[in-house]
């Protein structure tokens, strides 16, 4: 099971608000507390849950791309370029790379 902010807070005897503030880089947390929280996050290999963050913050930063036909040279090339941009953004930390499903609906001509 994934480690949560609550797990870290409980382990250290601090509030989830304190752990959240450390994670967001807020400066109103003492240096020693910040170091303890960061150390525990590293020990437990804490990874933020991006879905939970999107739900709590009201923004997912997701971008959708819908094209009628990936086989057509124009749409295929456009889609490929957009996927490279998404991969680059995920690689350099400016974005998230999500699952991309490509399939045929089975409806003739649509």
Any overview of this molecule?
The chain is mainly α and 110 residues long. It has 2 domains: 5-57, lambda repressor-like DNA-binding domains (434 Repressor (Amino-terminal Domain)); 61-110, no CATH class. Helix content is 52%, strand content 0%. The protein is built from 5 helices and no strands. It has helices at 5-12, 16-24, 31-43, 50-57, 73-91. α1 crosses α2 (16-24) and α1 crosses α3. The longest helix has 19 residues, at 73-91. It is elongated and about 60 Å long. It starts with a helix and ends in a 19-residue tail after the last helix. The model has no long low-confidence stretch (mean pLDDT 76).
Q: For the report, how would you describe the main beta sheet?
A: none
Q: How many beta-strand runs?
A: 0
Q: Identify the CATH homologous superfamily of the largest domain.
A: lambda repressor-like DNA-binding domains
Structural class: mainly alpha
Helix content: 40-55%
Radius of gyration from the alpha-carbon trace, in angstroms = 20 Å
Whole-Å distance between the termini? 42 Å
The CATH topology of the largest domain is 434 Repressor (Amino-terminal Domain)
The parts where pLDDT drops under 50 for at least 5 residues are none
Return the CATH class of the largest domain: Mainly Alpha
Strand fraction band? under 5%
Write down the overall geometry. Answer: elongated
**What is the number of domains?**
2
What CATH architecture of the largest domain would you give? Answer: Orthogonal Bundle
- The averaged pLDDT comes out at 76
SSE order: HHHHH
